[in-house]
Design a protein that fits this description.
heterodimer, A: mainly alpha, two-stranded antiparallel sheet, 5 helices, globular, B: mainly alpha, five-stranded parallel sheet
Chain lengths: 105, 539
């Protein structure tokens, strides 16, 4: 556990930089976390994905299935990787303040 | 992926280090990529496990309880008394070395402490010191050593560098189950708060929501409904699985990754299509929503605690018996622990197939049948219409998942199924399959990203065998019957044999299964086009 600080943002993160207190997420946090994923500016497409993940997480408490994410955002996996080079789980979910899935995944 | 290239990773140095093995000094910083992050304090607190704290193996001070040596000594004494197998395994080894080159981690890393004999010796040396007369008198020359902080750190490193796959045990002339040594060593480590998050978070999630992923009932239902929609898109058939339905004949328990992660979701679709085609009266449960049991990688008490829900739910729903999905270590728990820990399940009936009338006498005690046994029996009795040409775009080999193969002997059933549902099936070399199967490199909680280098090293023998059949026969699909495999082998193939992808067996069953009311099948369950426009042939 460590503290990640950037500008006005100061959050607790795990070893891989995922938020430990997802309830403290806001758009400034997303922007700050995005820079750790090599995304220096979030455009409308990034935000569409991030907000989809965020809303799903608030409703369901976990990350969505990737197939569902692709279907409901209209982005295929290639597009998701273009937006977040480390992919849906490690990139997009991190920026949206979700926890890493664990187990047989 | 690690920064190392494949060419760098295969430069394995088998020359033993000059340093005396009894004096360990592990530089965790230099060995990043070969160990797993410690359990988060919140998960240990949730479970009521000892010594929750934030720490890292790279810390000098691991913040152990003050009397940690006494705790471990007492813990070992208790377990020696409780498990006769442990005392036997610690006493009987003659260090013949038959196991030495059988471990995938040794073969992939060249680290002699990954020889199963020496891994066990890490614990055995302390046992000698504390519990045997010879060890007390002879000390180091008798192979005994004190439990120092450095020895404890070494335990943490190497006992979380064993996947409990039991390949070494196949070759031991004394039948020493080295996985049990690791299990017991991990139990001791847990007593002082030395555990890894990739094990403990799934355990905590399982305790809270019934499954590793922390999926709650409303999410469970939503995921299943999504997969039902996807299956309808692929086949034109609308299946209607029920959840928590009292009075169903069967309870069906699968690993949670099968209704969450690729490629397991296609295996799940295969199960649903099969059960629908036959009109089996079954229910899923949002409570018994996990076949896997990471208690096996923690402690016997934890196995029992997590396993309890399966019988409890079977009783609550009033089913006759339980069907289990393609999960790996789940079957070691079911086959070897469930009946004595949480049974006898005398409220259930000895399993009989509702379709063929076959009595699964092998499951008379546990009342739980493997889906591959169930399906192989259906095929044998001609109850399925199968069109293997629908898998002609695939050239398939089969990875025997360690626990179903070695812990319960599921060797023939998956092969029988595969030969019925695909036209192109090829075996890997015989010393890498069946009882001698090589581990995926990421079982027992080691399938996390921070441990990636060791995963890829440990998976190298398996990947090598896959590469062999890929080059010889053009194999492009690696089938297996374990959810950890489906996740870990996918990454392993991306690295070592990127031409090959991974699936469960029932995904291939789902592809081949002809069913009333289906649309012309032009794609497989993944939506990929079939070979040569096949898919509407008569089955």
């Amino acid at each position: 556990m460590s503290t990640f600080t950037q500008g006005n943002v100061s959050i607790e993160v795990d070893e891989d930089g995922f938020m430990l207190e997802p309830e403290k997420w806001n758009e400034d946090v997303a922007k700050a976390l995005a820079t750790t994923e090599g995304v220096n500016e979030l455009n409308d497409e990034h935000w569409k994905l991030v907000h989809y993940l965020r809303n799903y997480f608030l409703q369901f408490g976990v990350a969505p299935m990737i197939r569902k994410l692709c279907k409901e955002t209209g982005y295929d996996l290639k597009k998701v990787y273009e937006l977040f080079p480390s992919g849906p789980a490690k990139g997009a979910c991190k920026v949206a303040g979700l926890a890493k899935p664990t187990g047989c995944v | 992926m690690p920064e190392k290239t494949r060419d760098e990773l295969v430069q394995i140095d088998f020359k033993p280090p000059e340093r005396e093995w009894m004096d360990p000094a592990i530089d965790f910083e230099a060995r990043r990529g070969t160990w797993s992050y410690p359990a988060a304090a919140k998960n240990l607190r949730y479970l009521g496990f000892p010594n929750p704290r934030e720490w890292s193996p790279t810390d000098e001070d691991w913040q152990l309880p003050e009397n940690w040596q006494q705790i471990i000594h007492d813990g070992l004494a208790e377990r020696l008394n409780k498990y006769r197998s442990l005392k036997l395994f610690l006493d009987v080894c003659v260090r013949c070395g038959a196991c030495a080159d059988k471990c995938h981690f040794y073969l992939g890393s060249g680290d002699p402490k990954n020889m199963p004999v020496l891994r066990a010796e890490l614990l055995r040396s302390v046992y000698r010191n504390d519990f045997t007369t010879a060890g007390r008198i002879l000390g180091r020359i008798g192979g005994a050593r004190k439990l120092t902080p450095a020895v404890l750190k070494e335990w943490f490193y190497y006992f979380y560098q064993c996947t409990e796959c039991r390949r070494c045990s196949v070759f031991c002339p004394y039948g020493i189950d080295t996985a049990e040594i690791t299990m017991l060593a991990r139990e001791l480590l847990n007593l002082v708060g030395l555990n890894i998050n990739w094990v403990i978070e799934p355990v905590a999630n399982c305790d809270r929501t019934g499954n590793h992923l922390g999926i709650q009932p409303h999410t469970f239902k939503d995921n299943i409904e999504f997969l039902v929609d996807e299956l309808e898109d692929a086949t034109g058939v609308r299946v209607d699985p029920s959840i928590n339905r009292k009075g169903a004949e069967l309870l069906f328990v699968v690993p949670s990754a099968d209704y969450f992660a690729e490629p397991g979701i296609y295996t799940f679709m295969g199960y649903l299509l099969l059960l629908h085609a036959l009109g089996v009266d079954y229910t899923l449960s949002a409570y018994a929503s996990e076949g896997g049991n990471f208690g096996l990688f923690t402690s016997h008490d934890t196995i029992k605690r997590l396993n309890y829900k399966i019988y409890h739910e079977a009783k609550r729903l009033g089913v006759k018996w339980i069907l289990g999905g393609e999960c790996g270590h789940m079957w070691r728990v079911i086959h070897q622990y469930m009946d004595t820990m949480n049974g006898p399940a005398d409220f259930l009936e000895p399993p009989v197939s509702p379709i063929t009338g076959t009595a699964f006498t092998n499951a008379a005690a546990t009342k739980m049948v493997h889906v591959c046994e169930f399906t192989a029996d259906l095929i044998k009795h001609g109850k399925l219409r199968l069109d293997p040409a629908r898998n002609d775009h695939l050239r398939v080999t089969f990875h025997d998942s360690c626990n179903p193969a070695r812990a319960m002997g599921i060797l023939e059933e998956p092969r029988y199924i595969l030969r019925s549902v695909v036209n192109n099936f090829f075996e890997m070399p015989e010393n890498t399959i069946r009882e001698q199967t090589f581990c995926c490199g990421g079982g027992a909680g080691l399938g996390n990203d921070e441990n990636m280098e060791m995963r890829l090293r440990g998976g190298l023998p398996r990947a090598n065998a896959v590469r062999f059949v890929h080059e010889k026969h053009g194999v492009n699909r690696l089938a297996c019957i374990c959810a950890i495999d489906r996740a870990v082998l996918t990454t392993l193939m991306e690295y070592w044999v990127p031409e090959v992808d991974v699936s469960g067996v029932h995904e291939l069953v789902g592809n081949a299964l002809a069913i009333d009311g289906e649309k012309p099948r032009n794609t497989d369950l993944r939506g990929r086009p079939l070979a040569g426009g096949k898919g509407d042939a008569d089955a």
